[in-house]
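Researcher: Batch entry, complex prediction.
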Amino acid sequence: MHNSIEGTDRVDEVIHNENFRCGYVAILGKPNVGKSTLLNALLDQKISIVTPKPQTTRHKILGISNGDDYQVLFLDTPGLLHPKYKLHEKMMDAARSSLDDADVVFVMLDCTEFSPENLERDVVFEFVKSVAKPKFCVFNKIDAVDKQQILFWIALLSEKYSFQEFIPISALQKIGTADLLKTTISYLPHQHPFFPTDEISDQNERFFVSEIIREKVFELCREEIPYSVAVNITEFIEGNGRDIIRAEIVVEKQSQKGIVIGKGGTMLKEIGSRARKDVNEFLGRKMHLELFVKVRDQWRKSESFLKEYGYS
Ligand code: GDP
Ligand code: MG
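Model: Structure tokens for the complex:
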């Protein structure tokens, strides 16, 4: 996926720059702490879907931040949780494998949910305890709590845990995010960029289109529906005056299909019109978008369906 703003001829220049830094950063944290919001803020572009519901992100999503003398490869991960079904296990695998590549690890906390007493049993702290890499404690949502309180918590955390940095931010309001980027770069090894310097992700347009549609399902459907949905792009055709994307919204039960379609098709229409708007904006061109709803019995438990829908 290319960023249309930058040119492609910078690669030669970069190769000859001895001061260039490049490396991976894994963004870890519980569901809903603001990992995807942070990735979007750092890249100045929305590449990871964000909703008020937990467990929106299912894949490991790579976002690339390119500068004159750096390339930071941010890995947004599904939130850490105790797996309940096979899809959850795949989500945890994605989080775990992002640690293998990482040069720096962000452990993200949500100020509005913070309580020092619970940290001992915290799944995230447990997860990163044995990680011998530079770890940053990124304290998010500082826009929503008292500043004194944050300073107090940071003092408390720095006494008990070995983090290289404690960085308070608001991902939503982009407070502290530029500093976070700057500090992160200083920890990365001197090496040449791994990806072309005009790219913002390793995922293709198909993937982003399917994620945008999934986001609309999260926005509009309630209860278990968003968690039961996968989006499968079946056709992505361009040229000869036929710019069309066809996608299946896959659910687990017949009753869910009825809900996603809605009375007289109203729900599916609304999902489609919201998705179309964002897809066209994201791609920077107009595509015709057609949505279908399909039932695949218990797809979240099936190795072959999980593979087909890109979760492996
Ligand atoms: P993730 O599950 O960790 O990826 O979290 P998301 O990025 O999807 O964000 C979860 C919710 O927290 C969304 O409703 C965001 O708008 C909200 N959020 C994220 N960052 C901030 C922040 O800095 N301040 C506030 N007040 N809300 C935030
Ligand atoms: Mg997320």
